[in-house]
Design goal:
single chain; alpha+beta; six-stranded mixed β-sheet; three-stranded mixed β-sheet; 11 strands; about 10% strand
């Protein structure tokens, strides 16, 4: 009787082999399920990104209803120079700042003084320009220092934060107004310019062929979009821009509107910043982009560890997530069209088609299967 009881006791638990088999089965199940879970999470993030752009589109149309035009980006292509060049107009604010009242951002808007730059050294605009606005952030994109810049910030007056004791920064942004394209197209086909572009990251770039996009300089009325609002990009993803990069354009380099050629504007206030634009801040007009190449251009790494890339391959920052359409979604980028819809543009989109989607009055015909 005692031996029988002991025998039953010895066989009541798992053996080591049985335990290892169970662990192995669980590990296999996790390995099988993890990609599906990650895919589901990314699908949710991509949906949220789409919703962010739709909110942006609603704000643009509410602005248009109030003012009978779309808001300017503050940055535009200047077609009066040869070749066309990029210029900054009005005062130092972006499309994002102008649409705040139409997307429940009235408190931030009321805290901004549009008569001086957003980063005026007096700090007058820091309260309005510093908040993190989730609608301006793609949830799939990584962000340094909690969506705000803190790298290389000191007591420099260009930061617009007097003293800046806690290394505070400005609100980050992942969405860029589309202001022009200089993709070279001949007879409806993307063609290498002659002489070939000096930038191998965007070899089809040809500034001489630049044409304005929807959120160009000054007022853009719906009637000007003769290519059709559903075929014209208003805002596109440019996500994950590195905080350590500064623009090649100096702050305060604004041009007076309606002059040909444009003349330098007077200093914008006593605290005009002597530094350079930061194109990843939502308040900075330099967050608008011209489109020169494929979406998700992976020519260079996301971060080169430099303040401003000056190598031949990256001069002008026309690659990766800097100054070109870029996302962390697999296979392409989200784009807000002029009619308020959001389209997913493949990263291998035909460049001639891509150019036609940027121009607002190029007269091109866009096929839906070419997106």
């Amino acid at each position: 009787m005692v031996e029988s009881s002991l025998s039953r006791h010895r066989h009541s638990g798992f053996t080591l082999i049985e335990l290892l088999v169970v662990i192995a089965i669980i590990a296999v199940l996790i390995a099988l399920l993890l990609p599906a879970v990650q895919a589901a999470r990314e699908a949710a993030r991509r949906t949220q990104c789409t919703n962010n752009l739709k909110q942006f589109g609603l704000a643009l149309y509410n602005y248009e209803s109030a003012y009978s035009c779309f808001p300017p980006a503050g940055k535009s292509i200047n077609l009066t120079t040869s070749p066309p060049s990029v210029g900054f107009y009005d005062t130092g604010f972006s499309t994002h700042a102008r649409i705040l009242p139409f997307m429940e951002g009235g408190s931030q808007f009321n805290a901004l003084n549009f008569s001086v730059e957003y980063n005026d050294s007096t700090g007058i605009n820091f309260t309005g320009a510093s908040p993190v606005i989730n609608t301006f952030l793609c949830p799939s994109a990584p962000h340094i220092s909690g969506n705000r810049d803190s790298y290389n910030i000191s007591n420099s007056p260009e930061e617009g934060i007097p003293g800046n004791p806690n290394l505070l920064g400005y609100g980050y942004n992942d969405y860029s107004p589309s202001i022009y394209t200089d993709i070279n197209v001949a007879n409806g086909i993307a063609t290498l310019p002659s002489p070939t572009s000096p930038n191998p990251a965007v070899p089809y770039r040809n500034p001489s062929t630049a044409a304005p996009g929807l959120l160009k300089q000054g007022m853009t009325r719906v009637s000007e979009i003769t290519d059709g609002t559903s075929n014209t990009i208003a805002v596109i993803e440019c996500a994950g821009r590195d905080e350590r990069f500064v623009s090649e354009f100096p702050d305060g380099s604004y041009l007076l509107p309606n002059t040909s050629p444009p003349a330098p504007a007077p200093t914008r206030g006593a605290g005009a910043s002597p530094g350079r634009h930061r194109f990843w801040r939502w308040a900075d007009p330099d967050n608008a982009i011209g489109i020169s190449g494929q979406p998700n251009n992976k020519y260079t790494p996301t971060n080169e560890g430099k303040i401003w890339p000056t190598t031949t391959a990256t001069a002008g920052n026309q690659a990766g997530p800097n100054e070109e359409p870029f996302s962390f979604h697999a296979g392409g980028v989200n784009a807000l069209m002029g009619d308020g819809s959001v389209k997913f543009l493949r990263e291998n989109i035909n460049l001639a088609t891509f150019r036609s989607l940027v121009t607002l009055s190029g007269g091109e015909i866009v096929s839906a299967d070419g997106l």
